[in-house]
Every structure is written in structure tokens, then in C-alpha cells.
Design brief:
Length: 722
């Protein structure tokens, strides 16, 4: 039976929690203001409140707040371990396995060098350190030296990534190599940590037990990334369907982390490895909610991680190092760790063909140990491999290297300008990231297998970035369509156009197509692609399902209608986009520019200047005109076109801009498309309700009905009423 905590135990717990959190967060904020990682200040809180200072200056109050009994310390230590788990979940979120698999020569060489050299030097150093001073009660010469080696090899991915983000350098090639190498360091480090923990638990170096541990870790990792990934995806999807907001997905996320931590603890390795693997799985799920990840990070950064780092610092007694050889070995370990990582990274960078400056920058960045080192030291101390002095030295090494890395890395990266090819790539990526359509990471394509759906798939494949995913959806109503809906055939015909983009198929049985599609679109999709029905050519009326989707969608839509000649989008040689000069119109300009660049087609931007003084009756973002004024006849159109042409060129398109005059802008656009020989028209608008149906604007609807070319319309959701 569980025994409740006593009143005194609870009093101690609440006092510890309040004091540790307040001091840790305060010092963390102060260090961040000085340009240092907050973790250094949080560790400093433990130094202030532990035996290094507080217990020496005020031993009575210190003993009251931080007593040495297990029962009184267990609650706050449990909170600290929750902080470790959340910290490793964050690291898992940031671990990009696709990037790891696609490491090139440079990143691979740096990863190997920054791992092998510190492992070798660390193991040699650990082998000569005096056991009577640094060995814990369960340490052997091998396990102690191996833990020191792993401690020197791990880099702090969160610290490295945070520095890159703060300096706005994440997309730089040098930053990508640094982060990739840090991922490899951490991944191998945590696997080695799990193996070593299993060795200690089994009582020594036993080949059978060690192999069992390695196989168990490998099996769990393989299970997590295959069956476990599918189970997590289904759970997150079900949670999003069952509840609005963050409560459902957040609960699933925490449960997955706890289950993974329990499994790894049960197989003889630390629970934090399970949390790390769970973070990878949850971060990869297409049904994860971005706000959940942010919530986990906020919970960790604001409460739990500071408690962990502060409690880690409480175990550090700097005064104990002042006696004997403690200071000497502390200096030796810090210098050896710094030099080993710097040399290993530099040698790897040079072997990979990188410059001297790149090698130094990589060595500085990967030298930051920070959070990961503290976790390792805490585990080694808790399982009896590290003594108090060894634990203190490793924590100090983490703090010193974390303090050194940011200023050195900032200085080094400022002196490494991007090469011409890299600068062009960065500019293009920055432009694409601002595109509402091209920057979508998940797109939904409902289909019944028609030509317009296949054209919509072509458009998606051309405009989405390489890592974006598309889901092909069919909604089958047995009462209306019969038992054989040929759903697989319809999905295959559309999916073929996506050319292996990592698309997935979904089939839903429902008599309410629009509701089923909207419910699916609400599960984290950024874009909804639709093809009009074939009947539109004759009726000029959108189907009831399309009207419902356009009127009720909360995500942008791309509506596609094929031309009279049934030409394939991939055969497009000339794209025309009305350049309206309004913000919503830029979506059409961006989409047209991306399509033109990918298809090697010419892009024509046409701005219409109305001869009348009456404003266009179109919806915002529809085909609109700029009225002339007596004092500025052509200046405004020229400026608008110049800006639009410049934006389109940033997407890599061959673009020209013309200004035309006419009373009805849509008719002018139609005439211009015929004269220019356009194959494709791209428009953008915002839906609004008129007489109970979605209205796309007079100009947009006119062109959608009468243009002989293929028409693509970007439709933004209707503004909420009130």
C-alpha cells in the first residue's frame, strides 16, 4: 500500500519547489540577458543553494530546507526526473532522422571526428583517474572510463540549436552540419548510455547481458519507428477527432512519453532514453499539434527543467574539490574535453573538405555540453558509477563548455560569409517560406478520380516543397454510390501524379461528404486542394459539396479547373496572373511564379487600370483594377508591377509585367491571356457569403466560367462574422 507523505514532508517539498524554481529562473534570466544559455544560470542556482555556498553560510536553514533523508528528498527529485524526461522529449523533437540519413561527406566526417576523438581521449583519461577518489560504489575501471568517454563525446543539441536560431543561421550550411553532427553525437551518446546503464545493472562486463541490452535497445528503437509510429499517429489522430484544442493531443503525447520511459526502464536502461525515442516518434507524426510541442517546451523551460538543473547543482560541492587533487583533475578534464571535441570536429571538417574557419566554428559549437552532460552525470551518480567528486567535475565541465561556446561560435560564424550558391539558396528558401501555398507542410486532396482532381495533384506536386506531404482522400457513400466506389482506382490515379511525395491514402465511409472532408482537413492540414466537377463546364455552378467546402473551410483552398483543350499542367509554357496590388493577390503571384519556375514556363503579370471611377465589385483579392487619377496616370501601376515582378523573380521565374486599360478587368485579363498565348491562369480571392452561397468575386467567377485555359484559384477562408 502507498503511504501518504507526512505534513512535514509536504512542507519541505513545497518550500524546496518554490525556492529552487524562483532562484533557478531568476539566474537563468540573468544569464540569458548576458548572452549565455539559461541552463548555466539554472545550474548556478543549485551551486548557490547547495553545499558549495548556502549550506556553508547558513547550515541550519539549509538543513531544514534540504534535509538528507530519502523520504523528504524524493518528491522534488521526482519532479527533477520529469524535467529530464521533458528535456529529452524536446531533444527528440529536434532530431531529424531524414537529415541524419541524408548526411553528406562533410556532416559525416564531422560526426565521426567529433565522436571518435573525444571517446578515445575520454576513455584514456578515465582509465588513469584515481579510483579511490572518483569511483562510485558500483563502478569498475571499465564502466567509469566508459562513462567519462561518453560524457566527453556528447554535445548539447538544444544549446547548439538555440544559438543558431538566435543568430538566424539555422539554414546556413555550416549550421546544418553543426546541428547534424550534434544529432549524431546525441543519438550515439544516448544509445551508449543505455548500454552502459545495462552493464552496470547486470553487475559488470558480461558479453551475454551486454548483447541482450544492445539487442533490446535496437529492437525497441525499431519498434518505435515502425509499429510504434503508426500507433502514435492513430492515437494523436483519434485525440484530435475526439476533442478540440490541445487537451487530447497533449494527453496522448505525455502518455506515449511515459510508456516509452517505462519500457526502457524495464529493459534495464534509463527512462530518459525512452523519452528521447518518444520525442522522435511524436515529432515525426503528421497529426502532432504544433502547439503541443510548444506547450511541452514551455512546461520544460518554465518549470521542470530549471528544477532538474537546480537539483543537479545542489549535489555539487565545490569546496570538496579544494582538498586533495580535485582541482587538478577538474582542470584536466575540462581542458581535455574542450581540446578533444575541438580537435575531433576540426579534423573531421578538414577531412570533409571544409575550410579552416568552418572547422573552428564546428569545434566551438559542438563543445557546448549543457543539458545533456548534466543528465549523463546525474544518471552515473545515481547508479553508483560516479563519486561526488566525479559528478562535480562533469557538471563543472558542462557549465564551462556551455559558457565558452556561444561567444566563440558567434564570433566564428560572423567571419564565415555564405558562398554565392549558398546565398542564392538561402534567399530562395526565405522567399518560399513566406509563400502561403508553397510553404504548406501538409495538403489534403479529396478526389473521386476526375481529371480536375488529377490536375490538382499536379499543381500540388509542383508547388509544395520537397518535404511536404499530401494525403489523397475519398469519401464513399454506399447508399448513393453502391458497394463498388472504385476508391482505390481513383486514389491511385491521383496519387500517381504526386510521384512518390510520401503521400498517404485515406478512405472514409460517409453520406455527408463535405463534413467528412472538413473534419479530416481539421487534423493539422495547411492546404486543401480541390478539382471542380466535370458538370461545371455546362452549368457554371459549383457542386453543393464544393460550395460547402469553400464556404466552411478554415484553411486555404486551391481550386483547379481544366481548360477546353484538356491540356496537362505539365505542358504549360505560359502562365498569366492578374497583378492586383492587394495583399491577397500576392498568393496568386507567388503560386504562379513557383509553377512557372518548376515548369520552365514564362510568367506574365498583368495589371489592369480601369477607365471608370467606380470601384470593382469583386471580393477582396479577386481580379481588381487600379483607378487612374489626374496627377498620377501611370506611376502607380508601374510601381505595383515592378514590385510584383521583383517578388516573382525571387522564386526563380522568368517574368514580364504589362499594364492594360479597360472598363471590366476580368474581360481585359481574358483578352490578354488570348493575345499572350497563356496556357494557365492563376487567381486568388477570399470567399464571402452572398445569398447563402460562397461568392468568389465577379472577376474570379467570370474567368472560372469563361476562360478557355486551365484555371487555378487560391481561395482564402471567409472572414468570421462580427
Amino acid at each position: 500500500m502507498l503511504e501518504p507523505l507526512s505534513e512535514h514532508d509536504l512542507l519541505v517539498f513545497w518550500g524546496q519547489f518554490a525556492l529552487l524554481l524562483a532562484v533557478a529562473r531568476g539566474l537563468g534570466y540573468a544569464f540569458r540577458r548576458m548572452g549565455q544559455p539559461a541552463v548555466v544560470g539554472e545550474l548556478g542556482a543549485g551551486l548557490l543553494l547547495g553545499p558549495s555556498l548556502f549550506a556553508r553560510l547558513l547550515p541550519g536553514p539549509a538543513a531544514e530546507i534540504f534535509p538528507g533523508t530519502v523520504s523528504e528528498s524524493a518528491p522534488i527529485l521526482a519532479i527533477a526526473w520529469v524535467g529530464v524526461a521533458l528535456l529529452l522529449v524536446e531533444t527528440g523533437f529536434e532530431t531529424d532522422l531524414k537529415l541524419l540519413r541524408s548526411l553528406g561527406r562533410q556532416a559525416s566526417a564531422v560526426s565521426v571526428g567529433s565522436l571518435v576523438v573525444p571517446l578515445a581521449i575520454g576513455f584514456g583519461l578515465g582509465a588513469v583517474m584515481p579510483g579511490e577518489v572518483f569511483y562510485g560504489e558500483n563502478a569498475s575501471s571499465f564502466t567509469f572510463a566508459a562513462f567519462i568517454a561518453v560524457a566527453m563525446s556528447i554535445s548539447a543539441l538544444p544549446v547548439v540549436a538555440r544559438i543558431m536560431v538566435e543568430m538566424n543561421l539555422m539554414r546556413r550550411s555550416i549550421a546544418q552540419v553543426t546541428v547534424a553532427a550534434a544529432m549524431v553525437n546525441d543519438l550515439f551518446g544516448w544509445i551508449l548510455l543505455g548500454v552502459l546503464s545495462g552493464i552496470v545493472a547486470s553487475g559488470g562486463v558480461q558479453v551475454g547481458a551486454t548483447l541482450t541490452t544492445v539487442v533490446a535497445i535496437a529492437a525497441f528503437f525499431a519498434f518505435a519507428l515502425t509499429i510504434g509510429q503508426r500507433l502514435a499517429d492513430r492515437a494523436l489522430r483519434a485525440a484530435r477527432q475526439a476533442s478540440e484544442g490541445l487537451s487530447g493531443p497533449l494527453t496522448v503525447t505525455v502518455v506515449v512519453v511515459l510508456v516509452a520511459a517505462t519500457i526502457t526502464q524495464a529493459i534495464g536502461v534509463e527512462a530518459v532514453l525512452g523519452a528521447f525515442i518518444a520525442g522522435i516518434v511524436l515529432g515525426r507524426s503528421p497529426y502532432q499539434v504544433k502547439e503541443v510541442r510548444r506547450t511541452i517546451e514551455l512546461m520544460s523551460a518554465a518549470v521542470f527543467a530549471p528544477i532538474f538543473f537546480a537539483t543537479a547543482g545542489i549535489y555539487v560541492d565545490l569546496g570538496a574539490l579544494a582538498s586533495g587533487s580535485g582541482i587538478f583533475w577538474a582542470v584536466v578534464v575540462i581542458v581535455a574535453a574542450t581540446v578533444a571535441k575541438l580537435v575531433g570536429s576540426y579534423v573531421g571538417a578538414r577531412a570533409g573538405g571544409m575550410s579552416h574557419g568552418d572547422g573552428l566554428a564546428l569545434g566551438y559549437g559542438l563543445n557546448a555540453r549543457g543539458a545533456m552532460e548534466i543528465v549523463l552525470a546525474t544518471i552515473a551518480f545515481s547508479i553508483g558509477v560516479f563519486s561526488q567528486d566525479a559528478y562535480t567535475i562533469i557538471v563543472l565541465m558542462a557549465m564551462v563548455t556551455s559558457l565558452m561556446a556561444p561567444p566563440l561560435l558567434r564570433r566564428a560564424l560572423r567571419d564565415i560569409p555564405p558562398e554565392a550558391a549558398e546565398a542564392a539558396r538561402l534567399e530562395r528558401e526565405e522567399v518560399l517560406a513566406t509563400s502561403i501555398v508553397a510553404s504548406a507542410s501538409r495538403a489534403l486532396l479529396p478526389t473521386r478520380g476526375g481529371k480536375n482532381s488529377r490536375l490538382a495533384a499536379d499543381v500540388l506536386h509542383l508547388v509544395l516543397q520537397d518535404e511536404a506531404r499530401a494525403t489523397v482522400l475519398t469519401v464513399h457513400d454506399p447508399d448513393r454510390d453502391g458497394e463498388d466506389c472504385r476508391c482505390d482506382e481513383a486514389m491511385a490515379a491521383v496519387e500517381e501524379r504526386l510521384e512518390g511525395r510520401g503521400s498517404e491514402r485515406r478512405r472514409i465511409l460517409s453520406s455527408r461528404s463535405a463534413e467528412a472532408i472538413l473534419a479530416e482537413a481539421g487534423l493539422g492540414y495547411d492546404l486543401l486542394a480541390l478539382g471542380v466537377t466535370e458538370e461545371f463546364r455546362d452549368t457554371h455552378e459549383l457542386s453543393g459539396v464544393l460550395q460547402d467546402l469553400i464556404g466552411r473551410s478554415t484553411v486555404p483552398l486551391v481550386l483547379v479547373r481544366h481548360g477546353v483543350d484538356d491540356a496537362d499542367v505539365k505542358g504549360t509554357r505560359r502562365v498569366l496572373v492578374p497583378s492586383s496590388g492587394v495583399r491577397l493577390g500576392r498568393a496568386a503571384e507567388e503560386l504562379g511564379a513557383v509553377l512557372a519556375a518548376r515548369l520552365d514556363a514564362d510568367l506574365d503579370l498583368v495589371h489592369v487600370v480601369s477607365r471608370s471611377d467606380r470601384a470593382s465589385g469583386g471580393a477582396p483579392g479577386a481580379v481588381v483594377a487600379t483607378r487612374r487619377t489626374p496627377d498620377k496616370v501611370d506611376l502607380a501601376p508601374r510601381e505595383l508591377l515592378a514590385q510584383a515582378v521583383e517578388r516573382a523573380e525571387q522564386f526563380g521565374a522568368r517574368v514580364g509585367g504589362t499594364s492594360r486599360t479597360g472598363a471590366v478587368p476580368a474581360e481585359v485579363i481574358l483578352e490578354a491571356s488570348a493575345q499572350l498565348g497563356s496556357d494557365l491562369l492563376v487567381l486568388s480571392t477570399q470567399a464571402r457569403a452572398v445569398n447563402g452561397r460562397p461568392f468568389l468575386g465577379h472577376g474570379t467567377e467570370f474567368l472560372l466560367e469563361h476562360a478557355p485555359q486551365t484555371v487555378v484559384v487560391v481561395i482564402f477562408p471567409a472572414a468570421p462574422e462580427g
